């Protein structure tokens, strides 16, 4: 496996409170990796540190052969490491088209038109609503828009932070079907999710965070075969 994202001994937190306690995590090229754990385990903090939104205390983040430890978030985006944030974070007063175009502001601007057609092919609903204000869309449509905006930057690796949060069961199925398609298209994905069952069905490997440390890493089948982990951390 060619390692694309290589996180080693990552430590950090807020003020004097340590949140991450020496986390190691790898994502290979074209691989789907699930990052699981209860609320407060450190998943969001890890995302922020990897994407340059929060400084780490120590450790390294290497991506696609480059050392991004301590890099500004713009440099992270330019490298092709793109995050679709929890809560969608679309611009409610801008149109669907304007939100999508902002996705290519830092990276892949010269191929904006081509990538826009690709996103519309994946999400026909966005094409139908290209002139609609994002704030008037349903939660599922806004999540499609957030992922589409991420794809506009031609990600080498896409971090999806709780993409099914707040969606109806039917839309959750639709969302995971889309994520599976992205993986089949060869895109590397780090999937941060509370929906354990669906995540493990499509992941190549999984990590379980507990109190800022990796409690488990390996194939989903091995995780599901461990009764203690299944009960204590996954609620299964």
From TrEMBL:
UniProt cross-references to Gene3D superfamilies, sorted A to Z: P-loop containing nucleotide triphosphate hydrolases
Residue ranges occupied by any ABC transporter domain in the UniProt entry: 2-236
Native organism: Variovorax defluvii
Pfam families for the chain: ABC_tran
Taxon lineage: Bacteria, Pseudomonadati, Pseudomonadota, Betaproteobacteria, Burkholderiales
Keyword terms: Amino-acid transport, ATP-binding, Cell membrane, Membrane, Nucleotide-binding, Transport
Record family assignment: Belongs to the ABC transporter superfamily.
Top-level division of the source organism's lineage: Bacteria
Protein name as catalogued: ABC transporter ATP-binding protein
GO MF entry, a single one: ATP binding
